Amino acid sequence: MTKKHPFRSPEATSLGRLLVLILLVLLGSMRPAWASEAVSLPSFTSQETTIVFIALLSGVISLLAGGYWYRSVVRMSPGTERMEEVGRAIRDGALAYLTRQIKTMSVLVVIIAIGLFLLYQGQKALGYDLADAIGVALFFVIGVSASYGAGFIGMKMATTANQRTANQARSTFRGALETAFRAGAVSGMFTVGLGLIGACLVFLIFKQKAMLVLVGFGFGGSLAALFMRVGGGIYTKAADVGADLVGKVEAGIPEDDPRNPATIADNVGDNVGDCAGMAADVFESYEVTLVAAIILGAAIISPEYWSADATMRHSALMLVMYPLLVRAAGVFASIIGVLAVKGEDREDLDPMQPINRGFWVSTIAATILFGLASYLYFDRFNPTHTVAVPTEQAAQQYTWVPFFLCTFVGILLAIAIGWLTEYFTSTEKKPVTEIAYQSRTGPATMIISGFSFGMESSVWAVIAIAVTLVLALIIFSGNALLAGYGISLAGLGLLTTTGYILAMDTFGPITDNANGIFEMSGVLEEDRASGRFAGIEGLSGDRIVGRLDAVGNT
Hints:
Elements: H1 10-27, H2 46-74, H3 81-120, H4 130-168, H5 173-206, H6 210-251, H7 262-300, H8 303-306, H9 310-339, H10 352-380, E1 387-389, E2 396-398, H11 400-425, H12 430-438, H13 443-475, H14 480-494, H15 498-520, H16 523-530, H17 541-553
Antiparallel strand pairs: 1-2
């Protein structure tokens, strides 16, 4: 029998043709870049360099905080031998998926990087020289690597913390809650830290020509997010439905039953889709909103104004540096919020309460920190105490207040979306309870009810976003360019507490896995036989992970 060569299969041939086509498109697109990609900046002063270093330091602190929580979770006991066996199977499956995806993507990344270099190296009229073209290609690869790195670290932490959370639930409600949330914060802090450090490196290396290179970094993060989020999302849903069909429908056994091997694939999917994929997706949003705000800020005051006016030159640099300050404030706000999440060992504890409390703490801290940073940056450390923006008639002067308000509007949007999400997905609220009630009359009424509530939730989310955009436009109603910049600041505000928001997201797959490990390992039967329960009378470990899992879905 002739052995089939892997690179001569129809699939490989189709992939090769696709890669060649992409390369030809890139090579054939040797045209001038859009003006927004070629925005130049005045020469940096010591103040701009200081701002970049402050943002870089906050990124390093974010990584250190994530590393500290990583080590604290890893030191915990992984549980019984059977729990370790189940946990290892989930880790191996998640790592195998992500490794395969990275190997497949690496070829495409190299081809696109070469195409970007060839595309930009000839654009001398727009300010690109050989070093800038290399920078675009290099930081495209760095953007892809950072996005994958954030997802990989978050997934590795989640597949380690699921066992620790399950084992903590055998003795303490508080310990299980805080372990899962601290582990989720690792993903959040590494996502934020890598994004900030990458953007700051562009500024430190290319300085006033950073605008020419930032597009490559943002594009790299977006490309990785596309594959990780969509690919991982399809995998997790296919594995989840497949496990349910085999177990619940065909075999009539409970979810996460150890007799159903498909449950391992289900738990793997939670990590590659809702953990690694989510981290890459949030990294992309975090980075693209930052890059967009910086580029829009640089485009407001053109060189013809700042080259002849020192006040305009200073204002142009302030608009570019301000997004970095907002991001730096968000790092510390997220750390404060994570530390504020404290569980309790009591039977009636709703795990959503300490998580919501931490969210409010992080948003309030973020508002105070970037409000203070805005005041000091635009007023105290600015000789004119205002930002001058040119118009057709005369320059308009703006204080720190409208910039702060636009960012604050984004914070309000984050609060609104959080409230809408909890309302439409919480087991204690009307939508979920009504859908459950409709299931008594059959799947048809349940599907119709669920679909209607899903569409309603989308409507309210769209309204919240539309109101945010209108408010940003109103704040800068006298200047169209500044209005666009204000909208980008609202996007920054929405993702200011990204470290905390991603901790909430990753909390879900960790607790879901913990619930599965608890059931598949048979540890509940062992604890019952030995008379071991949590430190709360009548509250066993399976009930604890069950409650955490329910909140994780929200």
